[in-house]
Amino acid sequence: MVKQVIKKLLGEKNTDRIRRLKTSIDAAKSTWHNLSTPQSTRDRLNLSQLMSVHMLEKAMVVGNTKYLSAVKYPALIDSVTRLIDMGVPPDDYTVSESIAVIRSALAALPGHEDAKSQLEALVAKYSIPQNFRGGMEVIPSTEILSHTNFDFHAFVSSRRSVRKFKDKIISREVIYDIVRDALYCPSACNRQPFKVYFSEEREKIAKIIKATPDQFITSGFHDCLIVTCDRVLLSPAELDDQEYINGGIFLGYLVLSIHAHGLGSCLCQFLQKDRRQEKVKRSFGISDSEVIVCFVGIGELEDEVSFACSQRRPVETVAISLDS
Ligand SMILES: Cc1cc2nc3c(=O)[nH]c(=O)nc-3n(C[C@H](O)[C@H](O)[C@H](O)COP(=O)(O)O)c2cc1C
Q1: Which in 39, 82, 185, 236 has the greatest CB count within 10 A?
Q2: Which pLDDT belongs to residue 2?
Q3: Where are the domains of the chain?
Q4: Mutate to test the pocket of ligand 1, among 225, 258, 267, 306 (most ligand atoms within 8 A of CB)
């Protein structure tokens, strides 16, 4: 009641502005909290974000030797050591990836002998696995193009949002396969801030489906994923944008991956301003730093599939030439 009166006094536009401001302040507070609490897992992740080793890879690709030479490698290697000291396992993605990239950057530079020895000493001390590729790779374009010789139009246009599935649960192995492929989507600074929550337990799945915002269409769902984006993997300047840009791109790849694995899917958006965000996160043990981007109904196709025609707009109204 009070909220409604305030909303009326301030107007819809200003209420929305205040809500967005509050969300940004909360997110900044949460990021600051994560950065200043050494024990938390989030802090470890934040550190990896601070290290931003991906800049090194980009610099190698564009041949920016000035940037590469100016990097303070000993400090960067110290950050990796700090991660391990804080309890991050030496075979963790962040550690192995950082080591691979730093090593590759150093190999391309003359000198920096101290940093090179420091890095190898760290690898030896903690037996850090060296199974990650880092830095820059060069391959013939023919190798890339050899994979484009298939009917992409037929593939993308045969994916349709499916809202009624066979009564079957998708196995963990299949979900892993689908997500592994979807992870090849681009993400800002290769942060890959997305997460996919799933269950193989009927009761838990029913709970996920019940939490789906669009109850209008879920009666034919028998399995459902929750896709989130972890703000902790974003820099404060990226908050409130990159969750949805990265999350959206990931979702695009995810539905195509589901399609490629012979299954159907339907996205159900979960808006940031949805009041149930916190409640739903709590009920599935999703961390405070994550935002639920979407629910994804998933399942095996029935013998006959009904879907909305969802006619596409004429391409000329979407692809607009800037030439006269
Ligand atoms: C971000 C996003 C949110 C969506 N949310 C819903 C939803 O809540 N309920 C639903 O039935 N479909 C939802 N859809 C599916 C769209 O309605 C569907 O993709 C669109 O009509 C095109 O049809 P197609 O997917 O069959 O090609 C969503 C799609 C996107 C991309």
Answers
A1: 185
A2: 64
A3: 37-126, 157-299
A4: 267
